[in-house]
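Input record, target 12 of the design panel.
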């Protein structure tokens, strides 16, 4: 382990170079595929929509029958609806009433929008001259062409992807197996919400916070528990977890206190890659291996645990789930509050995004800034990234922000 602090980027790079991509796959139906990651690319088995159709409500006719110099009267031979097409073929001087998405009748290639025609009481219509042949129709492959690459392997399946798969008639897809995660909080001072507190005790907020963060990534933990500050029990539990989990996640016990046993046990059971990062909040973070299981030991302070998960654990899980693209996607906004601090660590402040009167994306800082104050996260909607070399940010300076809606959703 290096004696100097790793930068955030160095730590992320080492993590992603170390954690594996998945190999095991399974087939699931579309109803169970939300949030899963494709293991195979999808090529279109058919055209979509698959037939010539109307792009709007109107009247379908043969383009060669369009009037040239003056309005022309057409007899309406019938109607074509989506799912109930006109079965015949209109003759010259005839048209078919048609609705958006309906199959074009045989022999027609043009749809005249209903707003430009004049309807006679007996049902015939007058169509004006000067209209273009082939207008207002959709070809069979307007959306998707048979054989085209639709979704690449490594794509996470959200509602739009599931919709396009259904439009192709695909019922099942090959996806990567879910990541198996065991999650434990440590600390004799922790109690379950609802239990009475003794002096010096706290309710365990990290565990439900981290469970929820895992669930937003489509990960249901195999086991969730609270462990005492006792080295033998910790060692036995982590050894057992390593036999069943792809990733073990703990919170607390990674600093240098007398009861901070996690790093020592990790060194005993497996391999500690690093344990100190130039980040605020969250400098103590243990990353390594226990057998074949990836291990993250997050700090015990709630904000530190939250930030560490978003910055380090989330990209690792994305890669282990098989996502083609991993990592955070920052935006830029102007900071509404001047901010000063000592340099040396990349800092993640809590903020709220808004649009100023000039239409500029702007972020205001949300306090308190203590690594213990989880209320600041609950009041925020983004993280504000302060580079390690920065000492002062004047009001209005551009800063990177990480919106929560990109961190909490797949």
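The sequence produced for target 12 reads:
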């Amino acid at each position: 382990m290096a004696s100097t602090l790793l930068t955030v980027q160095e730590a992320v790079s080492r993590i992603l170079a170390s954690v594996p991509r998945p190999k095991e796959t399974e087939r699931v139906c579309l109803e169970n595929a939300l949030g899963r990651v494709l293991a195979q690319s999808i090529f279109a088995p058919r055209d979509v929509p698959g037939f010539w159709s109307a792009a709007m409500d109107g009247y379908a006719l043969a383009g060669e029958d369009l009037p040239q110099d003056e309005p022309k009267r057409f007899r309406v031979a019938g109607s074509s609806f989506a799912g109930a097409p006109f079965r015949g073929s209109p003759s010259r001087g005839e048209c078919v009433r048609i609705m958006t998405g309906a199959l074009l009748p045989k022999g027609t290639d043009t749809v005249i929008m209903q707003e430009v025609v004049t309807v006679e009481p007996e049902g015939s219509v007058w169509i004006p001259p000067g209209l273009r042949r082939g207008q207002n129709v959709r070809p069979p492959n307007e959306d998707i062409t048979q054989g085209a690459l639709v979704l690449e392997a490594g794509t996470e399946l959200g509602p739009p992807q599931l919709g396009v798969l259904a439009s192709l008639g695909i019922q099942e897809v090959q996806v990567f197996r879910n990541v198996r995660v065991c999650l434990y909080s440590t600390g004799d001072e922790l109690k379950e919400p609802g239990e009475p507190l003794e002096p010096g005790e706290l309710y365990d907020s990290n565990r439900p916070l981290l469970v929820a963060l895992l669930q937003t990534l489509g990960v249901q933990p195999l086991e969730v528990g609270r462990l005492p500050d006792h080295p033998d029990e910790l060692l036995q539990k982590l050894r057992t977890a390593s036999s069943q989990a792809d990733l073990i996640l703990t919170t607390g016990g990674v600093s240098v206190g007398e009861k901070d046993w996690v790093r020592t046990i990790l060194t005993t059971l497996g391999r500690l890659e690093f344990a100190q990062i130039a980040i605020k909040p969250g400098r103590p973070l243990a990353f390594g291996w226990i057998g074949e299981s990836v291990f993250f030991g997050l700090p015990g302070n709630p904000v530190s645990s939250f930030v560490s998960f978003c910055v380090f654990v989330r990209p690792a899980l994305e890669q282990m789930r098989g996502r083609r693209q991993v990592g955070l996607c920052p935006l830029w906004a102007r900071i509404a509050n001047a901010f000063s601090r000592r340099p040396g660590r990349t800092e993640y402040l809590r903020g709220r995004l808004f649009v100023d009167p000039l239409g500029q994306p702007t972020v205001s800082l949300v306090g308190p800034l203590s690594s213990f104050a989880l209320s600041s996260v609950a009041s925020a909607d983004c993280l504000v990234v302060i580079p390690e070399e920065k000492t002062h940010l004047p009001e209005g300076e551009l800063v990177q922000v990480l919106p929560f809606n990109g961190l909490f959703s797949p």
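The chain is about 20% helix and 30% strand.
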